[in-house]
Amino acid sequence: MSVTTAAVFEQPAVLQPKQHGKPGGFLRHTSIFTGLAGGIVLAAITYMIGSKLVPWGTQNADFTQVGLNALLAATMFAWVIGFMAGIGAFAGPIRWALGHDLTHDDAEYMAGKGQGKFRYWKYTTDHKVVGTQYFIMVLILLGVGGFLAMLIRTELGWTWSELFDPNFYNSIIGTHGIVMVVSLIIVVTGPLGNFIMPIMVGARDMAFPRLNALSFWLLFAAVPPLLATLVMGGIRDGWSVYQPLATQAGMGMVGYQVLIIVFAFSTGVASVNLITTAVTMRARGMNWSRVPIFVIGIIASSVMGLIWFPMYQYSQVLAMSDLILNSSFFNPVAGGSVWLYENLFWLLAHPEVYVIVVPATAGILELMTVFLRKPLFSYKLAIAGFAGVVGISAIVWVHHMYMTGFAPQVGYPFMLSTELISIPFGFLVLVALGTMWRGKVWTRLPMMCVYAVIWDKVIGGITGVYLSDVPVDQYMHGSMFVVAHFHFMLMGAGLFGAMAAISYWFPKMCGKMLNESIGSIGFWTAFFGFQITFFSMFVAGLQGMPRRVLQFDNAFNVSNWISTIGAYIIGIGMLIFLYAIITSWRGKTWAPANPWGAKTLEWQTSTPVPLENFPVLPVVTSDPYGYGVPDPYDAIEQELARDDNEAKVPQ
Amino acid sequence: MSTTTTGPLYPTTGEPVAVNARRNRLGVWLCIVSDCAGSIALLIAYSYLWSLNVNNAWAPPKNTWAPDAPFWLIVLGIVLATIAMWWGYKGLVKGHKDRMIIGATLATLITLVTFIGQIVQLSTFPFDIQDGAYASSVFWLAIGAAIHLFLVLFLTMAMIFRTKADRITSDNPYHARLVSMWMTYVCIIIAIGALFTLVMKESPNSNAPTFGTFTSQQ
Known about the structure:
The complex is a heterodimer. Chain A is mostly helical. In chain A, 64% of the residues lie in helices and 1% in strands. In chain A, helix 5 (127-156) packs antiparallel against helix 21. The longest helix of chain A has 33 residues, at 293-325. By secondary structure, chain B is mainly alpha-helical. Helices cover 68% and strands 0% of the residues of chain B. Chain B contains 5 helices and no strands. Chain B has helices at 17-52, 68-93, 97-123, 132-164, 174-199. Classes of the chains: A mainly alpha, B mainly alpha. Chains A and B meet through helix 3, helix 4, helix 10, helix 11 and helix 12 of A and helix 1 and helix 4 of B.
């Protein structure tokens, strides 16, 4: 992408509102520590008052401890509200309502100017800080989810070896599932959508910087209630927490519901911000045909999250209502319907797969052009692919309900729609293959990840087509085959795609080059471990092994044993990759501004990226993938650079 | 895409306020889309359970449905508040700052009364939330309306303070317009909820499947 530098807005002296005290105001005194204090204090007060008021012994029809669950829910929400108040999240809306608008100095303070590394511990609005916070949070969540996966595979290594109590084992399964889903939803849009995307479109920050900080800290506040579930009986019903099991569950279910309700707010706020930034803050000259494909992927993912996440959120609001108010949404005895829950749940929970896979796919398409030095093969086809996925994602959810007895006659239309979605996904694979066709590959770590993603997506996609067929699903439903399939999509395409994107943008985000030797060892180790684990799981599924079981027949011993070995190999690979990230990040040498010679805007600014991203706002004069296409502006710039170099040569 | 526009400048970023307003407008529209999806989830729950009448437990005990009038009084309240806010905004655009303050004050007062009315309705339903699927659904529609009204109350109060502080002026009336837009959406979604409670009372499924006698253990 050719860029000229010019100020889009002339910068005359802007009349500032009255400065109330020092810049930053109340936020000068807040940080994560005041947030923790606020959360703990409010939660403790709520618990103490609540325990006096709520009749603990109250039970609903299913003998659930209604009073205790209500008290727990109130305490957890009090934690979230107290934390957000303590960290300063409510200062902005109150200032706005009172007419005390931010001055430029306020905004700079809130963006973390002059605060060093302490800004990462505060309610900082700079999108780069928020992106980095997301990155660290994702690494922690993936670590937790991965550790739980290791426990699962350890238990399943041999049948009849009961390492864990069955209830605890079920809790591990449910917690692993939801932790991984949450972390994969944010693994690309969190770190890269926040850090990279605004620079990529030539903006100084996100459209709504305070909402950006809000989205991260809401997520942060939502995690402790989830992790607390492990010591409160856990989530024993899988990550989908089907009804009426959820209403009959113990206290752990409350933590799950609080997580989803709060996380949905976080996702909604982030989606609004990402879409608005991409649509309204593009640099001058960046018309829609010049928007990098990664930005399109972020928009597509955010649109799906924005529309479908509220369905999931309300499914949990109503489930919590059943649990603590004894209402009748999902309890058939009192007029509720478990199918209602399943519909509301899967209305998000299937598009959620695309929320995860789409940005990762967009990331690999973006970096392929760089490492092949070729324009993207059929940019419009890629956009059609993303649009098709977004559109059809709305009409596929019932394929999760073929075997529930819900309206069997609608199974076939949904079978058709599910198979249809493979067409836009096929477009995206075609674009990837077309871009590689006759290309001269610059094989670096991000490009290696691309091969892995294409392979995994093909395997996951083809097995998905099988599973969308009603007759096949009648046999495969609830088996390990399904588990292997969705791991190929979510981990194989989603997580490895995210690894590709992170290793590509690592020099810009962290300012250092990723150690590719160690990173490649880690990546390939994890990739081969992944194939061993989940191909073996396909075999177990075809043999008839059901999922979510603690013990199984001896017939499945070999495939489970191999799967467990594969899982340990994945774990070792991931640890090596993590080691590469940490040691590279701690390195002393700064990365060059544009180590890959890429043409998109984020690589045209310096590293580390300055607070306002660009000294002056860029103006885009060509498309982002015009490799090998002569550009008059490039020629002028090269001429100027040559003159400049000649002038610097000592005489 | 960023464009150069003349007019007053936004103090935080130095951009023209019109540019900032366009950005905020898209943000509010997206918030409306997201909120609408959540509200639709409640309406789906209502109509789904109404149509199935599982275990013949849709209707509240003794068919004591919630009276219709309070729903429509609440709709009337939010509609009047919205009209007051639009009236104030139109006046502001013509340069009458006082009219904006009066409009926002009226909107706040009417919304406050409506919000109190909503709380009264919630506390005087002739059934409890656990009295069947209809009762649960109606309670949550009313709770949803109360949350929306509370948010409207915050926004209309903010409009009073911001107009008095000259943050909202005839040159920069955009926040008042966005609040009016949001209130219009709230009118529509609360009216749809009221319509559901009006036309969907008796379930059309009189031959509902029945489940065991588990409730007898209560």
